[in-house]
Design a protein that fits this description.
Ufl1-like_C, Arc Repressor Mutant, subunit A, elongated, ubl conjugation pathway, UFM1 ligase activity, Ufl1, about 800 residues, mainly alpha, about 5% strand, Ufl1_dom
Length: about 800
């Protein structure tokens, strides 16, 4: 059998060596192959080489690809196509099949890499690590021209076998290097005795490692230190607690904390949260509750139950004796009023007394028995009745006399024209003076007193609404002067209990205020009937007050319109115009605005049943800005909004804006304002000029004379009533240059400069130079007085009218 097989091999070899006498062309071979494929003799796919002269089967292509991979370990698909001579498409397709069939191969970015290749790379990396102790994965990836993630995934299963290293934070470290850094972390961590942030510890360690590695070393990430620390903590080589990954608290510190807390709490039966914070314990309540389950957390302290027992016995004695006690007086200074209130509510005696209405807790820390409160109230109620009767009697006595005085102050002349002239002339006397008149200064405290009464009465009615029991539908509950104010009630309480005086009557949280708030509603209910009577009396008074207000506005608003027209002369001079607008707003405008706001406030109080004492007839009321704002806010609805707009305009810079808001408020209040026409303007200017001439003739102050002369010159030159402050006099004089001859203008400017010099000397006369300055002031004043006749002659001529 073997001999026959050998014979067949020799014949086959001979047939192959014999040259055929008939040769087939390439085309015949192609056609022959195609015919064999059609006849299914060749039942597998054949691939052409890139030269087109050879066929290759897919299985042979796979074998050649596998041979190249086993020979090189890492080969590019493109290089395979060039080496085998087959189109890249077929190479890529078969390469994928080869990779899928062999788990030891991977296709990465067009390259086929075998595990043997990675094993050799791992051995090379291990050799390099022995030389430099650490290598960056990113550096290796750059050298191998692959991604860092791929290098890391390949190295991780080979760590500890082919690669004797530790991978941490993208770095490879040798065991010796890790041991050295571990020793550094262990030593640094054991040297910490207070709570610390580990991030601050890693920075100096990084510097030490950098110095140790030299310039060629790679910076160590914080994550490497942190992982070593976590491992040491897990192995209990360090004792302590780690919060949020970086906040380290050594056990020695925690032990000291607990010892301090235990010592303080055992000695005092309480511990403030502030003390806990100083010890570094942020969540004090949770810490103390877990350590002392029987304790009670308050607002600022944590207490033992013995503190409740101590306070309970003290308060029980006070309640039984119909007395009172301030729990803060028996508690440590660390307790707040909120703490006192909470601990009182935990006392059994206080709980039973509150339930039986035998006591009240006021001002959070005071426990007052109901019998004690009743004794004080009975005494104050009698005095409150006397107070109400006395106030009522005084009001009934004063009301007719003040009404008659008010009627006598109104001119009895039925001639409307002459009455207007007299009123306007009298008003202009005060308008020309630049300082605030004395009678206006006297009016200010009266206004404040009236407002204070209104506020006290209003607050008393609010308390009535809270604790009175029955809600009245009448508007008289808004306030009543016959009801004693808080201050009066608190004073009477102090008279009964002098110990409460130390609490202070101005402190809104004092026991005095709380007792007054408790008693005033009861006093209000007892005086309720008197309040109803006031409504009837207020109706008639409102009508009279509104008529008087209308008369005041008829006169003052016409004057305001007259002064406003003079501002048109300075529209081209913005700086002077602003000063004049501001001055007119601060003087005449403020006066009529204050009068309107003051009277509207009184009307509002009367309308709401508040008893308001009558005030003497007065030309004007002067208010502060805050007082105007309060009066505006106290009005109702749209009236309050328009009053606030008026106050805002008064604080502004434009008179026209004030006039608009004033008209809106007056219209909303039901008041009619007269418009200045040509006839009224001539009449007012004539009266104004006549009054100024009289003042210039009798004026003895050389400084005040200048402003009045300038005002007269403006009436003469422009037919306008100018109201100018001292700092605008120079600009006002310059506007008269074209209206005066040269000598008159020079006289006026020289006098103005001398006036400025005198005022400067007066303001600078202080200290050791007082005597010298006084001589210079006297000399300058005498010089001005000598020039006063010359200045008067500019407006009065040679003959001056006799002084009246």
């Amino acid at each position: 059998m073997d001999e026959e097989l050998l014979e067949l091999q020799r014949q086959f070899e001979f047939a192959q060596q014999v040259k055929s006498s008939v040769r087939l062309s390439d085309r015949n071979v192609v056609e022959l192959v195609q015919k064999l494929q059609e006849l299914r003799v060749i039942d597998f796919d054949l691939l052409h080489t890139v030269t087109g002269k050879e066929y290759i089967t897919q299985e042979q292509l796979k074998n050649e690809i596998a041979t190249e991979i086993s020979k090189l370990g890492r080969v590019s698909v493109i290089d395979l196509a060039d080496t085998i001579g087959v189109d890249l498409y077929h190479v890529e397709k078969q390469a994928q099949d080869v990779v899928l069939s062999d788990p030891g191969l991977m296709l990465v970015q067009g390259e086929i890499i075998s595990q043997s290749y990675w094993d050799s790379i791992a051995e090379e990396i291990n050799e390099r690590l022995q030389e430099c102790s650490q290598i960056s994965v990113a550096e290796l990836a750059g050298q191998l021209q692959v991604g860092s993630e791929l290098v890391q995934s390949v190295l991780e299963p080979r760590l500890g076998t082919l690669v004797k290293a530790r991978l941490e934070g993208g770095q490879l470290y040798t065991p010796a290097y890790v041991a050295r850094v571990t020793a550094m972390v262990r030593g640094a961590s054991r040297g910490i005795f207070v709570p610390s942030n580990l991030s601050a510890l890693w920075a100096p360690l990084q510097q030490l490692v950098q110095q140790m590695n030299g310039s060629s070393g790679v910076a160590v990430e914080n994550a490497f230190f942190q992982s070593i620390f976590n491992r040491l903590l897990k192995e209990e080589e360090m004792l302590g607690s780690l919060r949020a990954g970086t906040h380290w608290t050594p056990s020695v510190f925690a032990v000291a904390q607990k010892e301090c807390v235990d010592s303080f709490f055992s000695q005092n039966s309480y511990i403030p949260y502030e003390t806990m914070q100083k010890l570094g314990i942020s969540q004090a309540v949770q810490f103390l509750q877990s350590r002392y389950p029987d304790g009670k957390p308050l607002s600022a302290v944590f207490i033992h139950s013995s503190m409740i027992e101590m306070l309970d016995s003290t308060t029980e004695d006070a309640i039984e004796q119909n007395s009172w006690i301030d729990s803060l007086s028996v508690l440590p200074a660390s307790f707040t009023s909120q703490d006192a209130n909470k601990i009182l509510l935990l006392c059994p005696s206080v709980q039973s007394a509150l339930k039986a209405e035998k006591a009240l807790i006021l001002a959070e820390s005071f426990v007052i028995s109901s019998g004690f409160i009743k004794g004080i109230y009975d005494q104050i109620e009698k005095e409150a009745e006397a107070f109400s009767i006395q106030a009522s009697t005084a009001s009934l006595i004063d009301h007719p006399s003040k009404s008659s005085e008010s009627q006598e102050s109104i001119p009895a002349n039925t001639d409307k024209g002459s009455k207007k002239k007299k009123g306007k002339s009298a008003s202009m006397k005060t308008a020309t003076v630049e300082t605030v008149p004395d009678d206006e200064e006297e009016a200010r405290p009266k206004s404040k007193r009236n407002q204070k009464k209104g506020r006290d009465s209003s607050s008393s009615q609010k308390l009535d609404a809270k604790a009175g029991g029955k809600k009245e539908s009448v508007k008289a509950q808004e306030g009543n002067n016959f009801i004693p104010p808080d201050g009066w009630v608190m004073k009477k309480i102090v008279d009964s209990v002098p110990e409460f005086e130390d609490e202070g009557m101005d402190n809104p949280d004092s026991i005095l205020k709380h007792l007054a708030d408790l008693m005033r509603p009861m006093l209000i209910n007892s005086l309720k009937e008197r309040r109803k009577k006031i409504f009837t009396e207020n109706a008639d008074r409102m009508k009279r007050l509104k008529d008087d207000l209308q008369k005041k506005l008829d006169e003052s608003f016409l004057n305001m319109q007259l002064y406003e027209k003079a501002l048109e002369l300075f529209e081209d001079d913005q700086s002077t115009s602003a000063v004049l607008h501001r001055h007119l707003l601060r003087t005449t405008a403020a006066t009529i605005a204050d009068t309107l706001l003051h009277d509207l406030d009184i009307l509002n109080k009367l309308k709401n049943g508040i008893e308001v004492g009558d005030s003497k007839a007065q030309d004007s009321v002067l208010l502060e800005s805050s007082e105007r704002m309060d009066l505006a806010k106290n009005l109702n609805g749209s009236l309050s909004r328009k009053a606030l707009a008026l106050v805002e305009a008064l604080e502004g810079k434009r008179v026209d804006a004030f006039m608009t808001t004033f008209r809106d408020l007056a219209e909303e209040s039901g008041l009619a304002l007269k418009k200045l026409d040509k006839k009224l303007e001539r009449t007012l200017l004539h009266a104004y000029r006549k009054d100024l001439i009289s003042q210039v003739s009798t004026e003895s102050d050389p400084v005040a004379l200048l402003a009045k002369v300038v005002s007269l010159l403006y009436i003469k030159a422009h037919n306008k009533a100018l109201q100018a402050p001292g700092r605008a006099i120079a600009a006002a004089i310059s506007h008269l240059k074209d209206k005066l001859d040269e000598s008159a203008y020079k006289t006026l400017t020289d006098y103005q400069k001398a006036t400025v010099t005198l005022l400067a000397l007066m303001s600078a006369s202080t200290g050791e130079e007082h005597d010298c300055s006084a001589d210079r002031i006297l000399s300058k004043r005498e010089l001005l007085e000598s020039q006063m006749p010359v200045l008067r002659s500019l407006v009065l001529g040679d003959s001056q009218p006799q002084q009246s």
